[in-house]
Amino acid sequence: MFKIDPTSNRITPLEAKRFSDLGFTERRHLQEWLENYPQALAQGDGEELLIIQKEFDGFDDTRERLDLLAIDKDGNLVIIENKLDDSGRDVVWQALKYASYCANLKKQQVVEIFQRYLNQKAQTEGGEPADAEKLLLEFLQADDLPSVQLNTLKSQRLILVAAHYRKEVTNTVLWLSQFGVNCQCFKVTPWQAGDELFLNVEQIIPTPEASDFMIGMMAKEAEEKSSSTEQRHSHQLRQAFWEQALDAFSQSQCNLYNNISPSKDHWLSAGSGVSAMAFNLIFSKSEVRVEFYMSRSQAEVNQFVFERLAAQKEQIEASFGAELTWQPLPNRKACRILYAKPVDGYDKANWSEMIEWLVAHMIRLEQALSAPLEQIKQKLKNADLHKELTQGAE
């Protein structure tokens, strides 16, 4: 790995180091880094992890503890084991044990584990603890806990983190993958250039190409299983609601959703003209919502757009005609701007009023953001944007 000096137009080699040589430890350093920035282990586009506990030891009749426990966007528990400079021989066995222990956790137990974690953080950092169930539902984009598929049978994932992997570990992981065990190995390497330190995080098993293929095969299998079962009542409601809503939009001055089909999901997205940034309609049991959602794979680009819009907050809200909710979502890649209305969403008698509200407020939101987004779109095309973002991060 090399460091580029644009001024001299030269490259300088970085020196690969051992964590132990730099005085870094597994618990005080690597574990803390990953706890506070789990996106480092989210190699796929759009993949997000939510840390729900660290050094978890809540297993009956055992004193063993796992390093980090997380959840992914599909509601799968993710067991993360860190081993610093050397993976050791037994890391796969340890992770499998923890996965077997976690497989028995029910939804409410997962929420309680997450709440204890939030309580501990609040006690350490000061302030009131956040509500675990609310954060979990927001992360999973779900209406309520009963409707969530959480920690289902055979869904547990394993993530191993180390600077060096022994052959017996990599061979075992590759063998387990043939039996549907979702196990990833990340190689972490510290680098040094003078007084500067860097960390490279690289997924080595499965390779990104193999991972995409495996995810595609699992998605195909899930789709086939889903098509052979009856849709849940909530899915049927959403499908019917969106059919009515899209019909109303087609007769309005808003053209965003002209080519969008009804969905069983609780949201509909339409492009804004800026890549990976959408105008969303949200229909849930307790509210309807219009929002502008910034979800580029690069978190700094989302932050860049959000900050440019926030700088024009007064003008945008004056144009919209109401105070909007601005959410930078610092623990996630995305950002959003929204306006919501509490409703009894699953009562069909309310649908006509709800749809009328969505149409009116999406028209207002699109108009309010139209001119600012056009300016930002030109800025995003600027060749100096990367330099500006880098300087902003510093």
From TrEMBL:
InterPro entries, alphabetized: DUF4268, tRNA_endonuc-like_dom_sf
Ranges of residues in domain DUF4268: 237-370
Gene3D superfamilies: 3.40.1350.10
Entry's Gene Ontology molecular function annotations: nucleic acid binding
Protein name: DUF4268 domain-containing protein
Species of provenance: Marinobacter adhaerens
